[in-house]
Amino acid sequence: MAIAIPTQLDTVSRGTPVYNLTYIYLVSTVAALGGLLFGFDMAIISGTVRFFSDFFQLDNIETGWAVGCINLGSAVGALVAGKLSDTLGRKKTLVLCALLFALSGVGTGWATGFTMFICFRLLSGVAVGAAALVCPMYIAETAPARFRGRLVTVYQLAITTGILLAYLANYLLLDTGLNNWRWMFSSQSLPAIFFFFSLFLVTESPRWLIRKQRIELANQVLTKIGGADYANQESEAIRQSFAQEIKENSRDLFSKDLFGIVLIGVGIAVFSQADGQNSLFSYAPAIFQQAGMAEDSAFLQSVILGLINFVFTFFAIGAIDKIGRRYLLLYGSALLCVDALALAMAFYFQWPGFWILVFVLGFIAIYAATLGPVTWVALSEIFPNRIRGNAMALSTLALWIANFFTTASFPVMKTYLGLPATFCIHAGICLIYFVFVKANVPETKGKSLEEIEQLLTK
């Protein structure tokens, strides 16, 4: 599918800014590398589960804890990053994330005991949670409204790229001997180092700079993005959005005029993780093996899963600023409900492995084209400027807690309830999400962050 993204400078009718898209894409791409590490870190464990479980002699509950604990670390990362990114800035927080990604990859891979393994997985989760909060927020605060949807969606594309690379790394390192799982985890450090050095090519978010009264530097960044007229107009709009702010406080999230917006953000975050994709991403080889596939074949199918996830994200990039956020969420939740029911039937009636593969790939394709990217776009743009850091922190905290429970509970649910019942539960969650979106989520495409704030705080 062709993606309608112009190149170099974008000039249209008189009065429209001349956008420096080369610089805009550079900022968005570098920030999106945090998403690549997010996806890599979350998916790399899928190929290691059987090997480290045998090495540490884990039972089902311990295995679920080993896989799911990263989400608790991510919850901590989300809590810390909200305040940290408001204090230090978006860019410096991402630099710290890059260092944590590099350290935790090697630490997890060469852990000598299960406790040490868990500690580094939790540390890795801190990096994931912080990056998941700051990266889309940084892109949204830098990108012009006209391109914001597709550029934040590039962050989701980076996540899918990381997942694909993780599956590929697992497949390529499968036959490296007893220490194969150690090399799988350690491979995360290479993209982390690349991310670290890439961050020195970009500047700070202009909205953060204005908030810190660094107006001149913010105007320089805005001028570089869209020219002098664009900088003056945006700078004035951003300053007005901060005009009534005295001091950001977490209590503001529960004020009468903002609490409804916060609840919408938390709902989007929770449902995006509870719908079932985490079970597929984290346990793909085990699911395929239960469907009767050989180990090598199951790992190869996981690579295909990652490729499907990557390819269908391009649909979202092309559609999000045309179809809109709300409709993609509605279509996605409805289709995922149907697909989850099909998976439940396939396992219940023991259909051939080919159909399991079709429905799993279909589920991932739908998620990649709808809920996956739209979640981060919605969370990065629906909150008012003055509470964005704390609101993003609360929403991503809820996201990671939901991720933890769905990921950690899957081995137990699979054992005691069976896969048919497990996927029926996911189908029900997708149906509830459809109703939630229809009742609560407005359309925000084409609007500036300040216009969205006015829309939602009427």
Automatic annotation (TrEMBL):
Subcellular localization: Cell membrane
GO cellular component: plasma membrane
Membrane disposition: Multi-pass membrane protein
Listed InterPro entries: MFS_dom, MFS_sugar_transport-like, MFS_Sugar_Transporter, MFS_trans_sf, Sugar/inositol_transpt, Sugar_transporter_CS
Pfam (any one): Sugar_tr
UniProt KW keywords: Cell membrane, Membrane, Sugar transport, Transmembrane, Transmembrane helix, Transport
GO molecular function, one term: transmembrane transporter activity
Highest taxon, organism lineage: Bacteria
Domain (Major facilitator superfamily (MFS) profile): residue spans on this chain: 27-445
Ranges that cross the membrane: 23-45, 65-82, 94-114, 120-140, 152-173, 185-203, 257-274, 298-320, 327-348, 354-379, 391-410, 416-437
Family per similarity comment: Belongs to the major facilitator superfamily. Sugar transporter (TC 2.A.1.1) family.
UniProt-recorded name of the protein: Sugar porter family MFS transporter
Source organism of the structure: Spirosoma aureum
Lineage: Bacteria, Pseudomonadati, Bacteroidota, Cytophagia, Cytophagales
